[in-house]
Amino acid sequence: MSLVETIEFDVLGDLRGGLISLEQEKNIPFIIKRVYYIFDTKVGVVRGFHAHKKLRQMAICVKGSCTIKMDDGVSVKHVTLSSPSRGLLINPMQWHEMYDFSTDCVLMVLADDFYDESDYVRRYEDFVELVKGK
Ligand code: TYD
């Protein structure tokens, strides 16, 4: 599983503007059980700081831009999302931190399960231990 997997969505644009359609198990490679979005993020805020044990997610910056630090315990990459037609897959056991939010940023995240705090790994030391144990 590569650390940075992005998907470019088809833009169904015409003279009126753009339109993107997201469909589970088609251009989104999982069942979509939950959608949440992060907006009005204050300047300088960094959020995330966790990995998930099982959850699969797709992050799409539908407006503005932000950068996501991705860390699988072996390497670290930074991905800037600045287009509504680009999605970043956040797979299980990928520590992620979101930063550099533009003031107009709306970061939409699709997830393959409901919110479940027990699926979170919120301590980086625990994340490293879990990665080592694999
Ligand atoms: P938090 O995990 O801090 O967000 P981030 O990953 O951006 O740092 O979530 C903030 C609060 O919202 C926390 O109390 C958990 C809650 N929450 C839900 O209830 N449902 C959700 O789908 C999400 C993502 C968070």
From the alpha-carbon coordinates, what is the Rg to the nearest angstrom? 15 Å
What bound compounds does this protein have?
thymidine-5'-diphosphate
The amount of beta strand, in percent, is 35-45%
Outline type:
globular
First CA to last CA: what distance?
14 Å
Helix share bin: under 10%
The arrangement of helices and strands along the chain is EEEEEEEEEEH
Question: How would you describe the oligomerization state of the chains in this entry?
Answer: single chain
Can you tell me the residue ranges where pLDDT is under 50 for at least 5 consecutive residues? none
Query: Strand sequence of the main sheet, in spatial order?
Result: 1-7-4-9-2
Beta-strand segment tally: 10
Structural class: mainly beta
Number of helices: 1
Largest β sheet strand count, sense and barrel closure: 5 strands, antiparallel
Whole-number mean pLDDT: 97
What would you say this structure looks like, in words?
The protein is mainly β. 7% of the residues lie in helices and 40% in strands. The chain has one helix and ten strands. The chain has one helix at residues 124-132, and strands at 5-8, 34-39, 47-52, 57-63, 66-71, 76-81, 86-90, 95-99, 106-111, 120-121. The radius of gyration is 15 Å and the shape is globular. The relative contact order is 0.28. The site of thymidine-5'-diphosphate has 6 residues, from β2 and β3.
List the helices and strands and how they pair.
Blueprint: E1 5-8, E2 34-39, E3 47-52, E4 57-63, E5 66-71, E6 76-81, E7 86-90, E8 95-99, E9 106-111, E10 120-121, H1 124-132
Antiparallel strand pairs: 1-7, 2-9, 3-8, 3-10, 4-7, 4-9, 5-6, 5-8
The structure holds thymidine-5'-diphosphate.
Thymidine-5'-diphosphate (TYD) binds next to β2 and β3.
